[in-house]
Amino acid sequence: MELFDHFAGREAEVSAPLAERMRPRRLAEFIGQRRAVGEGSLLRLAIERDRIFSMILWGPPGCGKTTLARLIAAETRAHFIHFSAVLSGVKDIRAVIEEAREERRIRRRRTVLFVDEIHRFNKSQQDAFLPHVESGLITLIGATTENPSFEVIAPLLSRCRVVTLERLGEGDLAAIAAQALADEERGLGKLRLQLAPEARQVLVRAADGDARVLLNTLEIAAAMVPPAAGPEPAVIPREVLERALEKKVLLYDRQGEEHYNLISALHKSLRGSDPDAALYWLARMLAAGEDPLYIARRLVRFASEDVGNADPQALALALAAMEAFRFLGPPEGELALAQAAVYLAAAPKSNRVYLAWGLAREAAENSGSLPVPLHLRNAPTGLMRELGYGRGYRYAHDSPEGYLPQEHLPEELQGRVFYRPSPHGMEREIAARLQRWRRLGAPTASPPAGDGRVDPQGKP
Fold first, then answer.
1. In the predicted model, is pLDDT for residue 318 greater than 80?
2. Minimal CA–CA distance to 219: which of 1, 448, 436, 16?
3. Less packed terminus of the chain by CB within 10 Å, N or C?
4. 3-state class (DSSP) for residue 48
């Protein structure tokens, strides 16, 4: 029976995907992540001295989180349990804890519990680990692609060290590919293959930092190439590699941190008046499957928040782009979004309406229900007229300038200035117009536009 199990295990190992077969068996074979596990790093020293601490491995897909956890188990004397948050619940956690107790009681070994995709556990499931991490019964290693500060409960996060792993660089990926082509025991070495330089470049770039994508694609490409006929190795050309790739899936999570990272990059590129970067981030989001109407709504928001009255046409164009996309759909409608993005990036910028609105809302919330001045009230009845409603109101159209000075704020707020136009774009003209009207006899409490700086309290 043991002999049968041996051969069954061997067969499973041989039939496993290349990415699984090529997992490093020793820390010395691990490629990449020099900052996290390089010579002299905290984690490297902890592994070498067998003093592993609880940690959260945070990094993008295919950067080595699971491999690193397995290496920690192999290089230390701890009992290792691999636990999937996707397939397990609280009942399974209890069974694992009991197994850890048995290991400590019978074999005097501590247990390293590796929880893959720990962000999939809800609060109560994560809570179940707390007392056992606290007591030292288990050393927890969680792996996640999501920001731990959002996805891991604070009490558990405070008991773990976050180890940040980065996407693998092109040099690391090229080294992993070369290792797989050369390894005759677990890799493709017996096939005697080599990548054409152009094919290597395509493979490394398409993998986008993901070793699993790299090795899976390489395995597919290797199966598409006839075996070497002579002493020279067979070459995997670029054309074969591109057929093996099909369409590359970009790293993106519409509900996770990368979603916010990319929309933030787009927004800041627009604000920074960089149309090229704006087009790039827009293309990234669309290629990754973001809802185009979500992007369109963000463009409309940007038009009011960051362009404002410096170019009032920006809001109309952003709204038109959104309607154009609704009418055309993808891919033709995407051009309207690109047009709006370029226009917004190149437009003059002003957030003065955004700031003024914040100050006005703050004043409205803090001042209570101040009465409307009598001269601004309508007087549809005789009683209202007797009470002074509308008395003293000055009709602006009676003036050749279309402006007559009078106070429009409640008495307690008179003199407050919320909107101060910037010197950019159309707001330069708005500022000049307001100054001209004030020279005609505006209330003395209303100051000129000045240099456009806003006092935190909205006072002149």
1. yes
2. 16
3. N
4. helix
Letter for the amino acid at 178?
Answer: A
Sketch out the chain's domains with CATH numbers.
33-164 (3.40.50.300), 170-245 (1.10.8.60), 257-346 (1.20.272.10), 352-439 (1.10.3710.10)
- What backbone torsions phi and psi does residue 382 show, to the nearest 5 degrees? -60, -40
State pTM to two decimals. 0.59
Residues 6+ apart with CB under 8 A from 294: none
CA atoms within 13 A on the CB side of 436: 9
The 3-state DSSP class for residue 47 equals helix
Alpha-carbon gap, residue 23 to 187, rounded angstroms: 10
Asked if 56 and 118 touch (Cβ cutoff 8 Å), the reply is yes
Tell me the average pLDDT across 324-341: 91
What is residue 417's predicted lDDT score, i.e. its pLDDT?
84
What the block records as the tokens of 228 is 């070497």
Q: What is the pLDDT of residues 109-147, one digit of tens each?
A: 888 899 988 888 888 888 888 999 988 899 999 999 888
* CA angle in degrees (0–180, nearest 5) for 312-456-405: 60
- Other C-beta atoms within 10 Å of 245: how many? 16
> What confidence tier does 181 reach under pLDDT thresholds 50, 70, 90?
very high
Per the DSSP assignment, residues forming a β-bridge with 164 are 58
Element (H, E) at 434: helix 426-439
